[in-house]
Each structure stands twice: as structure tokens, then as C-alpha cells.
Amino acid sequence: MPKNFCGLDFGTSNSTLGIAAGNGVALCPLEAESVTLPSAIFFDYEEHKVRFGREGIGAYIEGTEGRLMRALKSVLGSSLIDETTLVQRKRVAMRDVIGMFMRHLKARAEQHVGHTIEHVVLGRPVRFVDEDDAADAQAEAELIGIAKAQGFHHVEMQFEPVAAALAYEQSLAREELALIVDLGGGTSDFAVARLSPERARAHDRAADILGRSGVHIGGTDFDRRLSIRHVMPHLGYDALIGPKKLPMPSHLYHDLATWHRIPTLYTPQNINYLRSILFQVSAPEMIEQLIEVLVDRKGHRIAAAVEAAKIALSDEAEVTLPIPLDPVVETVLHQGDLDHAVYEDGLRIVQAIDACLRAAGVAPGAIQSVFLTGGSTAVPEIRRQVLGHLPNAKPVTGDLFGSVGLGLAIDAARKFA
Fold first, then answer.
1. CA 334, 36, 94, 63 torsion-angle sign
2. In whole angstroms, what is the distance from residue 351 CA to residue 342 CA?
3. Where are the beta strands (DSSP E) in 60-153?
4. Which of 338, 357, 381 is the last residue of a domain?
5. Which candidate, 247, 253, 245, 246, places its Cα nearest to that of 270?
6. Which residues pair with 70 in a beta bridge?
7. Residue 345 maps to a domain
8. Looking at the record's lineage, which domain of life comes first (predicted)?
9. How many domains does one find in the chain?
10. pLDDT, tens digit (0-9, with 9 covering 90-100), for 178-231
11. Are 300 and 228 in the same domain?
12. In 3-state terms, the chain is what percent helix, strand and coil (to 5)?
């Protein structure tokens, strides 16, 4: 009989899906040959169709008229999940938008394996919402409900760092006390685990997961901080209004720098307000550029340019960030700018690691290996702070985008095969 289970890592920035393959598991191609799919959905107004991932982002950047939405996972656990968004004069519920994306992932996997998939282990961060257990439980319930509405009749959950631990364990020749560090687009998650080839054969691994923790910090936060410091000043962030020299409303800029908040800015009220203050603001030319961004809906283009600069600065000492205005404004960023932007977030990540170690009853010096997964582990300052806190740990870099999906599929095989 066909194995109709999968492990689904619905990520803030990228998603993966693991399936049965031979005697093991593998990641399923989700877009051409790529096993990752950017968690983006584009409502194409010209061809009246929905596009996903790179195809949708590409159509948006090329100027196709439509509506792009990214970082969909970020609305889980927030009031935004109950809101609707306007798509060509039709109100669409945010949970239905997430459902469309999940249904697309499921259809791609079923096309690849040639049969229906009804069983899934979904990944979840250790915390959807920091310090709010009710909201955190509601976020998990929403995700399960969305999955079942797409035809996943049997849904189990697994913590994302635990899934990454199961994937890392496949490479081990002997037992290790490991810290799993999963730094994604929206959350940072950690687990202390005893891993070995022998332990990998056990069905129940609860006793081997000694501690876990999480904090709502991720790559999209790094993007936002970099954008606020180096892009938003070009759009009037520091401008003053009227004789009393009142500051510009900061929420406009913070929302413009936050992936999942960008679509909420494109309202006549915001545009009319900005036009009304043009003749009393200290930098009218910059406010005119901000108006241009909102009218032409360039928010995601700006966010994509900032994200690309962040990624480039992980390897290069200096990059030029082109801000897509008319004309294009170029600003030079140095690796030190990224270090400075993420420094405080790095401290909070280390604090969350300490909480994980305390939960496990383990000192930092006792950790033998630290398994790094998730795209945000490539940010140099974050990596320095994490590794500097674990003096005896061997750093191991896993598949930055695929480890969790593979681990979820391993877990699914145990639960459903």
C-alpha cells in the first residue's frame, strides 16, 4: 500500500514537505526541482489566478498587477488571523489564504507521489506567542484546523527543533548531548537532546528531549531592524511635522518594514493623511516618496531588497542596497551595520538558549555539539553570540532550510507507517 503520510514544515519565509522515499524519507520538489517554496502567495489580477512561491514573487516584482502576501505564518496567534484582506474587491479571510497555500503544498506532494496524502505531522515553533499560553494554544488549534480543512484527516504536531534533532541524528555514529538551534524567519527554537544511532530506533523519544525553549525572533525581525535604520530615513522616518515639530507616526514605518503588515498600509486613509501634511512637514520630498510607495504598492519590493542585502552581508563586507523608488536610491551597507541591527536580538536568543539549558538541567559547557539550522543561523553576529556561549560544543551546520521538514517526515513514519 502507498505510504500516505508526510511531514510539513510551514515556515515564515520558506516551506518544505518531507515524504516517504524507499526505506527512508526525502524532501519533495515543490517548485520545479526546488525542495523549498517561499511562503508567498500572489493574487494575479491580470490573469485572474493565484501564484505561489518564486513564481508569485517574480510576477509581482516584474510589475504584474495583483496582491502579494508573505510571512503568512506570522498571523497565527495574532488578531490578524480573524481579519479579512481585500483581493480584487472581494474580502478573503486570512485563514483561507493560509489554507490556499497549504492546499497547494499538499497538491504538489500528491502529484509527486501519485496518490492522496491524508496523514501529516505539522511542525510548530516552541512558542507561537511569547508569554501567552492561551494565544499560543489558539495558534496551534488554528493551524490544525486549517490543515484538516485541506484534506489532512490525521494531523499530529511536533516541535520544530525536535524535528531538526531527529534529522541530525541520522548522521551520528555515537551518542551526543546536542543543542539544536533552529533560527527561522519568524521564530528561534531550541532543544537539548540525547541523540545516538541506538536511540534513533526507539518509537517514543520523549525521554531523550531534555529541554526546549523558543522566542519570537527571526529573520523577518532582522529585516525590519535593518530597514528601519537604513531605508525608512529615506522615506521621512526622521521628519518632523508642523511648528511643534511632532514626529512622524512611527507605526507607518514599522508596518512598512514588517513583511506581514505591509498590505495593511495600502489604504486611502493613510495616503490622504500623508498628502495632508505635505506642506507642514520638514522633509516633504521624502514624504512624497512614501506616498509613492503606498500608491504603487512597493512595500514588498523594498522588503525583498532589504532581505537580499541581509543575506549578502552574511558573506560580504559591503553591499549596495537599491531602494526601489523613482529614481532608485542606493545606500551602502557594511557588515557592521547588520551586526549592530541584530545585536540586541542576539542577546535575547542567547537568553532563550539559557532557558533551554536550565530546563534540561545542563550547563553550557556540557553541550557536545550544536546543530545549526534555519536561514538566520547564517547571520554572522547571531552565529558568533550563539557559539561563543557554548565553549565546548562542536558546531554542525545542517540543511538550513530542509532539516525540519526531513525530521517531521521521520516522525510521521514512526507515527503513521
1. positive
2. 14
3. 66-70, 84-87, 90-93, 119-124
4. 338
5. 253
6. 40
7. no
8. Bacteria
9. 2
10. 999 999 998 999 999 999 999 998 888 889 999 999 999 999 999 999 999 999
11. yes
12. 45, 25, 30
